[in-house]
Amino acid sequence: MGTSGQGQSNYDLSFKILLIGDSAVGKSSLLVSFISNVVDDLAPTIAGQERFRTLTSSYYRGAQGIVLVYDVTKRDTFTNLSDVWAKELELYSTNQDCIRMLVGNKVDRESERVVSREEGMALAEELGCLFLECSAKTRENVEQCFEELALKIMEMPRLIEKGSTVLKRNISKQKQEHQRPPTGGCCS
């Protein structure tokens, strides 16, 4: 999606992606696994805890992609997505075209699985989400999760318009360069 060099990042597009779901389902681990290819045991992060509820509306505002994450070994994290998180999403999400993906994490613990793949697919269909199962620990399907989400966002022109100002600046700059009279050379 972008290239970097000499300490600066130059992106063609940038999107606001949210990861939501119960505590300890592996939201931060998924992100770290995608970015760095390494997953250590991470300390619990604060997003979603009750004392931060006043930030909820700004947290959702303008998101172009939302990843709803559950732990396939903990049924309550799955049921809470439809009972709690999906309702909150409907209440606060400002982009109607926002791409949503349901992700069942921790498939490396197959022997402890309590939520079947079929149940996940059914909920995804009910909520109008893409669906993937993955493991932040083994990195199975982690890249596919974010890449598929980004590709779907790019298929929605209205979402791209609400995206990166960097892209708009680059396009504007390119137009200006094309409009400049050529310098040097000789006339025919």
From TrEMBL:
<dbReference type="GO" id="GO:0003924">
    <property type="term" value="F:GTPase activity"/>
</dbReference>
<dbReference type="InterPro" id="IPR001806">
    <property type="entry name" value="Small_GTPase"/>
</dbReference>
<protein>
    <submittedName>
        <fullName>Ras-related protein RABC2a isoform X3</fullName>
    </submittedName>
</protein>
<dbReference type="GO" id="GO:0012505">
    <property type="term" value="C:endomembrane system"/>
</dbReference>
<keyword id="KW-0342">GTP-binding</keyword>
<comment type="similarity">
    <text>Belongs to the small GTPase superfamily. Rab family.</text>
</comment>
<dbReference type="GO" id="GO:0005525">
    <property type="term" value="F:GTP binding"/>
</dbReference>
<dbReference type="Pfam" id="PF00071">
    <property type="entry name" value="Ras"/>
</dbReference>
<dbReference type="InterPro" id="IPR027417">
    <property type="entry name" value="P-loop_NTPase"/>
</dbReference>
<dbReference type="InterPro" id="IPR050227">
    <property type="entry name" value="Rab"/>
</dbReference>
<keyword id="KW-0547">Nucleotide-binding</keyword>
